[in-house]
Amino acid sequence: MKEKIFLYYTSDLHSHFENWPQIVGYFKNKRAKHQKNNESFWMVDNGDHADRFHPITEGLMGKGNVELLNNAGYHFANLGNNEGITLPHEDLFNLYNEADFEVVCANLKSIDGPQPKWLKPYRIKETNHGTRVAMIGMTAPFETFYRLLGWEILSPYETLDRYYEELKQQADIIVLLSHLGIHDDEEIAKSYPAVDVIIGGHTHHLFQKGEYYGNAVLTAAGKHGTHLGEVHLEWDHTRKSLTKKEAYAVATENMKKDEEVMDSLKNLSVRASSFLKEQVTSLKDPMNVAWFKETLLMKALTEEMQSWTNSDVGMLNAGVLLDHLDSGPITFEDIHRICPHPMNPCRVEIKGDELLEIIRVGHTKKLTEIQLKGLGFRGEVIGKIVFTGVDIKTEQGSDGEERVREVTFKGKPLDMDAVYTLGTADTFTFGRLFPEIAYAKKKTYYMPEMLRDLLVHAIRKLETS
């Protein structure tokens, strides 16, 4: 006898709920079909379903996302880094308390005290005909960030080594929910031949059809719910082996939206908004933002970054503020609206010559006009780089470029061999925008504070000054 088994999944939704109603509608139709045919199926989320850029996720601290997964009838979920390192420890510890699905993430545990009751390394389920399917999850090992939040993140390879033999003995089919990225997925497929299916994510890659590495089929559905994934398996009970493994990414753009889900999202939005209505301060005058100019609000935020991190110099990009603030009462909802990024403060130690190069590059159009995507940034363009703690003299070139002529610190030229501390956003430590920051040997991250927390302090100081 040959048995058909189906997996449906989402990955890296990042709270882009505009595509959620059609995703759930599609899953509902598939569920009805498989139940009618007595076929086994599971619905899975592979992490980064929640992203605090969205008011629903921010206002309900991810629990609204869990409600959506519950209502959609999901069976399993893995943790992504947006669940793992953008929530304070207590919020993550309690995030899935009311989940109707099982959470599998084998390489994460709390450093101190008890472990969350919902956190399991893997689960094994039987199909309608007794085939044993193992679901094991793993997430990207951002060790420094997890440790600061009270979590221990383990090597995915050491973790898989630990469970590999028992999975082989207990399961007929092994499915890895991997929020590790495409390169790790390929390496695992080559090194662990008993893994049959790898549902990929984190690097936002998209496979229209399954990619085969070693014995495994790799599948991935991109980001933001523009696609959903499905995997079709065929288990031969006579031969005790998989005879078919197929995977697809299905575009959601033209799918019919589920009306019940749309109503649910509206209700969640109202609930989340009620939590964000707390007043932060009140402004006598409006505060404007400009992506390519230094505004009063942007300078105040950069100064707060410098002060918060106790640094010699502060540095932020004007593109992090997305909208103006009107006069009158300002709420946390307003703060989130103009600064939604899940970005944390950071202090790096750099030498004088490196700081000078950062300032020079920060004044070039090539950098300020970059349309940055990812790395915690949820805006449009980088914008003007604002510096505090140093005096910078520039001149306008005939080509329209602004060039740095002189930089002084406390009235004296930068000492090229001296070490300076720079307070900035953690975004610049990840990518290659400023190699001097990314490759700095000493970095100190501040968590769980986010950029918008500093913005609250900056605005309050402006109003009392």
Q: Can you describe what's shown?
A:
With 465 residues, this protein is an alpha/beta fold. It has 2 domains: 2-272, Purple Acid Phosphatase, chain A, domain 2, CATH 3.60.21; 278-464, 5'-Nucleotidase, C-terminal domain (5'-nucleotidase,  domain 2). Helix content is 31%, strand content 28%. It has a 7-stranded mixed sheet with strand order 6-4-3-2-1-14-15, with helices on one face. A 6-stranded mixed sheet has the order 7-8-10-11-13-12. A 5-stranded mixed sheet has the order 20-17-24-19-25. The longest helix has 17 residues, at 20-36. The mean pLDDT is 95.
Spell out the key features of this protein:
single chain, 465 residues, 5'-nucleotidase,  domain 2, 6-stranded mixed β-sheet, 25 strands, 31% helix, elongated
